[in-house]
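Entry type: protein chain
Record version: 2
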Amino acid sequence: MLRTKNLILDLKEVPNTWIFEYYLKLPEKLTGQDIKMKSIWNLNDKDPSFFVYFSKTSQKYKFKDFSADKTGDGVQLVTDMFNLSRRFDAVWKIIQDYNDYIMNNGSYNVEEFKIRAKYQVKEFTLRSWSKSDEKFWMQYRISSKLLTKYNIEPLDNYTLKKDNANDQFTVNGVRIYGYFKEDGTLYKIYQPMNSKKKFLKVKDCIQGIEQLTFSVPYLVICSSMKDGLAFSKLGFKNAEFIAPDSENSLLPEKVINQLKEKYQKICTLFDNDEPGIKAMIKYKEQYDIPGAHLKVEKDLADCVATHGINNTREYIYPVLTKALTGTIKQLP
């Protein structure tokens, strides 16, 4: 166990773990584990969307707030928490606060550090489609034929296991779905009945990209696969869709540039909430991709479920046309 005693003047002497423990008031010391908590910026955060995690690349702890769309290291955390204009100001605050902490507490103990193994999906079992599945997906007018086209299959169960450990457990339940690549690789699990863990990411994947034909002029970046599938039911024959892992995850610039070469125009169609609006703004600022803001229901799929295909098409046509062409045309 290491012990820090002396007052310091250099940020390098402040333990990275202390910054997160102190400013986030964590109830436990960071010794290699990840922490999940509610957003410190979004007071309406119902499900924990703030993560403190150990970055293997930098060998330091970092944070990611999916709800508030903020991410970075300990200095960035303090910069954002106290609305500081410069990282230098955050560095100086951290040094001062750490010295005060040492003065009041005598020392800060750096515990033995060990990266914890994480649960990973190791096995899964497919099952047949049921009436319950039909009831769920058809409220969004999404058929089993469309689900099959996008390689979405119902799962009977899946097993989570830690590497090099016997620690494992199997998850069973109704309405569990696996999202697969064309080669059969499972990349995501969708559990709409699980309010705490609706999505379980298994591998990186841009959803819907394998189904693109590049034969139409427009591409719509939706917030989720479900919204994309609902969009495909609206009957716009001159537009295709893709969806990132989440609307808070920017697609790589290389991918955006490749897509811009394939399509006349691209727009985003994200959720009608604060994270969705922030994501639309981010795509506009970083990639000059406009957003189609549908101000009806939380998202497109919910709009279809509540108002039906025809009404949703009427709602979305003006904003989609404006985003893709810069003008608003009347529905034919």
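Comment: The longest strand covers residues 152-162.
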